[in-house]
Structure formats: structure tokens, C-alpha cells
Write a structure and sequence with these properties.
Domain Aminotransferase-like plant mobile: 98-287
Protein name: Aminotransferase-like plant mobile domain-containing protein
Distance between the termini: 52 Å
Region (Disordered): 1-33
GO biological process, one term: meristem maintenance
Number of strands: 10
Strand content: 5-15%
Pfam families: PMD
Helix content: 25-40%
Radius of gyration: 24 Å
């Protein structure tokens, strides 16, 4: 018994396959949506492919008027703001935190086209890039070898913080007045601190030799410009300050694992057609061997 396949593209981009057996009427034939042109035919795993940027690119639809993904890269800011030679009063705390390598690992220029090409092949359901030769991903071993961040220790899952707690954290651990902090948080329109504001605190507390506050502002600015970079490109989530309440104990956290989880999350967001920015640490993505 011979069969023929009739393909018609649906409104959602799927190609339904209708198998017509000889001797059977077309009304009795079963129609099943089996996949997307240029994409997966079995979508039981890649359930969000309908919203994936690759599906839209196949039909010539770009992300928006600028037709490219905006990537957060703070390499030049780090070069100008984050000194490599730290005062000895800070050096011991920064070294014990396990984050000192981030001072030297950031690329000053991010290849947006290269990063975008990888993002278009990322699928959040598998946490991997789907390449013509198979799947590949970024691993904890990559984080340890390329960024020299600790991948052993306590896995830190950041808690959500209210704006009231954001103010309290700044007052207690960055030594900023309550009124000034409230005004700043209102200007951020959420539970954030501005990177520029943290830099000003870093300069101010360094001039007054308030080394614990200097170090916290420095570390928060450092992670906010690298492994925890936000899609706004100017803010850092205030909840990361919780990492640095105890400067002697923050070395017990697996910052490498947190960096990888953050990048995975942002890659998943950016692989969707509606997303226009990529957060996280693009250097880790670009320097993959």
C-alpha cells in the first residue's frame, strides 16, 4: 500500500503531515503537527520552540528594528574603575572571597554577532547549544578553568528582597544614610543599586579608610559588572549584597556555580524572540575553547 505526504505550513509555522492511504477518504485521514521547518520535528521536549528566536529567523523575522541582540559587556568600565592593585587592607578579603580573578578575565570588547549566533542555538529545556554536529554546553569545569572561580562549597540561591530590606542592607553594610538610600532605591524603581552609585561609595569610603565598606562596595560592583551583570547594563540586584555581609565567610560559597546558573538563565531568556538583551557574563560565552 503506497502513501503520499501532503505538507502545508500552518499559521504557527508548523508543517502538519497528513498521510493519505489509498482507498481512504481525506476526511478520515489523521493530521498531526509534527514540527517546524528548519527546526525540531518532535517538539515534546523543546516545548517552547514556538517562541524561540530561531523559528522566527527561519521566516525572516528579526528581533526588532535594530535586528540584533544587545549584550551587556562591562570590560571597559572595569578597566577604568576597578583597580588591579588593591590596598592591603582590602586585598586579603578580596582574595579569600575567591573573586579576585574577575579583575583580569573580562574582555574589553564583546563580539555581539558571535554571541548572538550561540544564543540562537541555545535551548533552555536542555541547557545546551544545538549545533549541526550535536549538542554542547558550558560546564562547571569551564568556569573553573577559564574564570578560576570556586565551584565547590555552599550553593547560594539568592532570596528575593523587598525595597525596605534593600535600604536596610545599604545602611548596615555600605554605611549610607537611610534617606540617601531611600532616594536612590526609588530612582532605581526596584530592588537594585546603580553601578555608578557603588563606584562613588567605593571612592568615598576609600578616602575615609572605611575598609569593610570599601570592600563590600567593590565586590558588589565587581560581580555586578561580570558574573551577575543585569540586562539593564547599569544596575546590580541588591540581593547580591547578602553574599558579602560576612567578608570572612563569603569564601564558603560556590560562586562558580552561581555564575553558571545565572548565565544559563539569561541564555534561556535571550533565546526567546521577545527578548532583546542578554545579561550574565558574555566573556564566559565568548572565550569558550
Amino acid at each position: 500500500m503506497k502513501c503520499s505526504v501532503v505538507q502545508r505550513q500552518g499559521a504557527d509555522g508548523r508543517i502538519p503531515v497528513r498521510t493519505l492511504d489509498r482507498g481512504a477518504s481525506s476526511s478520515a485521514a489523521a493530521a498531526e503537527p509534527v514540527g517546524y521547518p528548519g527546526g525540531p520535528y518532535d517538539t515534546s521536549l523543546l516545548v517552547k520552540y514556538e517562541h524561540h528566536v530561531a523559528r522566527h529567523i527561519w521566516f525572516g523575522e528579526e528581533r526588532g528594528p535594530k535586528k540584533e541582540l544587545k549584550v551587556a559587556g562591562h570590560g571597559l568600565k572595569l578597566t577604568s574603575r576597578v583597580p588591579l592593585a588593591l590596598p592591603p587592607q582590602m586585598e586579603s578579603w578580596v582574595s579569600r572571597s575567591g573573586l579576585s580573578s574577575l579583575q583580569r578575565t573580562s574582555l574589553n570588547k564583546i563580539d555581539t554577532n558571535l554571541v548572538s549566533a550561540f544564543v540562537e542555538r541555545w535551548h533552555l529545556e536542555t541547557s545546551s547549544f544545538h549545533m549541526p554536529f550535536g549538542e554542547m554546553s558550558i560546564t562547571l569545569d569551564d568556569v573553573a578553568c577559564l574564570l578560576h572561580l570556586p565551584i565547590r562549597g555552599i550553593f547560594w540561591s539568592p532570596q528575593d528582597v523587598t525595597e525596605e530590606l534593600v535600604v536596610e542592607l545599604a545602611v548596615d553594610y555600605l554605611r549610607v544614610s537611610q534617606g540617601q538610600t531611600q532616594s536612590h532605591v526609588r530612582s532605581c524603581r526596584g530592588s537594585y543599586y546603580k553601578l555608578e552609585w557603588l563606584y562613588d561609595l567605593f571612592v568615598h569610603h576609600r578616602a575615609t579608610s572605611s575598609w569593610a565598606y570599601v570592600t563590600r562596595a567593590y565586590l558588589l560592583m565587581l560581580v555586578g559588572s561580570t558574573i551577575f551583570a543585569d540586562k539593564t547594563f547599569t544596575l546590580v540586584e541588591a540581593r547580591y549584597l547578602l553574599l558579602f555581609r560576612d567578608l570572612d565567610g563569603c569564601s564558603g560559597y560556590s560562586c562558580g556555580a552561581a555564575a553558571l546558573v545565572t548565565l544559563y538563565r539569561y541564555l534561556g531568556d535571550a533565546s526567546m524572540y521577545s527578548c532583546k538583551q542578554l545579561g550574565g557574563y558574555p566573556t564566559l560565552l565568548q572565550i569558550q575553547p
